[in-house]
Amino acid sequence: MTSSDNVVPDRRLRPEQAPAAEPAKDRLLAGAPTGARAFWAFAHGMVLLELAGRFPPDADLDTTWRVGVGAFRPPAPSRWDRRAAAGEREVR
C-alpha cells in the first residue's frame, strides 16, 4: 500500500468557488507551470505528512504552511523598481 492508496474525500472546488480561488493562484504562481508543479509538490507532501501523523506533536504546522507558501511568492520590489515604476530616473 502506498500513500496515494489512501481514500480521501473529493473536495474539489465547486464551480461557484473557482473564481474566488483564481486570483490568489495567479498572484502566487504568476502563470508559471514549473512554479505550479513545485507548489503542488510542496502542498501534496505537506498534506500526506499531516495525514500520516509524521510531524512531531509540538510542530507548528500553521507556521510551516505560511513559510512554505511564502517561498513561492515573488520577491518584493526593490527601491529602484518602485522608483522606476513611478517614472523617476536614476541620478548618477
UniProtKB/TrEMBL annotation:
UniProt cross-references to SUPFAM superfamilies, sorted A to Z: Tetracyclin repressor-like, C-terminal domain
Metal-binding found in the keyword field: no
Residue ranges of domain HTH-type transcriptional regulator MT1864/Rv1816-like C-terminal in the record: 32-71
Keywords of this entry: Transcription, Transcription regulation
Disordered: region residues: 1-28
InterPro entries: MT1864/Rv1816-like_C (IPR025996), Tet_transcr_reg_TetR-rel_C_sf (IPR036271)
Pfam families: TetR_C_33
Name of the featured protein: HTH-type transcriptional regulator MT1864/Rv1816-like C-terminal domain-containing protein
Organism: Couchioplanes caeruleus subsp. caeruleus
